[in-house]
Amino acid sequence: MAFCLIIMSSTCIAEDAATYFDRLGVKLYSSGNYREALALFNQALDQDSSQADIWAHKGNALRALRNYNSSVISFKKAIDLKGDNQASWSGLRDTYIASKDYTNASVAAAQAVSLNPKDKYAIVVEGQVMQLQGKFYDAKAKFDQALALDPKYRDALYRKAISLMAEGNASQAIVLLDQALVVDPKFKQAYNAKGLAMEMAGQQKGSENAYDSALQIDPGWNQPQSNKMHTYLAQNRMEEAMKIFVKL
To answer: Which of 45, 42, 57, 55 is nearest to 16 (CA)?
Structure first.
């Protein structure tokens, strides 16, 4: 079965049914209609189950629907069909992260990087998985690898700062977080992390200002509010702490 895709100079350019359903599914997935997208990916696979990209697209939809076991199966099918597809390995990695299976996520993350060693995002995610496993020192090497490709890559600066904080190196973490904030002044996570680092360094007023900066960007974000409350508690400023506590 073929579908007419474009009419140009009276010539009909046709696409096969599997590609047609897959293309529509990708559009629905992009708009957040995951169940409808999944139905179309299944229709596409009914037409042709040999296309790795469609299996990967199905895996993404299943992950979005939090059906992690089926998502893993779909990505593995995509990899069986085309083992050098970085997108499939990345999708498998993200599904394992979502299901908190960090051991398998680490394997998939490493494979995704090996297929494109210049993909700074994939490198940072591999480091992030290491952090999720508590391997903060090992993760730093990954962030350095990403920074060698792009010294101003904000996510690598931020993630490396977290590793430094885990090692007790608050001063160097603050330096990196400030660099990340120069790149992106609206990077709320960096302000929140800077608040924690400044607390570690005994700079209480600076930490409050950092949390306030995060809250100016996102007033409804609970994490900097909670962190600011604990800063007040550490200073025995109970009334100010309780004003935050009752709103959390």
So the answer is: 45
130-152 average pLDDT score: 97
pLDDT in tens, 203-247: 989 999 999 999 999 999 999 999 999 998 888 899 998 988 888
Residue linked to tokens 């009909």: 12
Which residue segments constitute the domains of the chain, with CATH numbers given? 15-116 (1.25.40.10), 139-248 (1.25.40.10)
Distance in angstroms (rounded) separating the CA atoms of residues 136 and 125? 13
Longest dimension (CA), the chain: 79
- Listing DSSP states for 153-215 in one string gives -HHHHHHHHHHHHHTT-HHHHHHHHHHHHHH-TT-HHHHHHHHHHHHHTT-HHHHHHHHHHHH
Kindly state the tokens that stand for 233: 């508690």
The whole model's pTM is what? 0.88
Q: Which pair of tokens denotes residue 35? A: 């169940």
User: Are residues 124 and 104 in contact, defined by beta-carbon separation less than 8 angstroms?
Assistant: no
Question: What residue has token string 């050098």?
Answer: 84
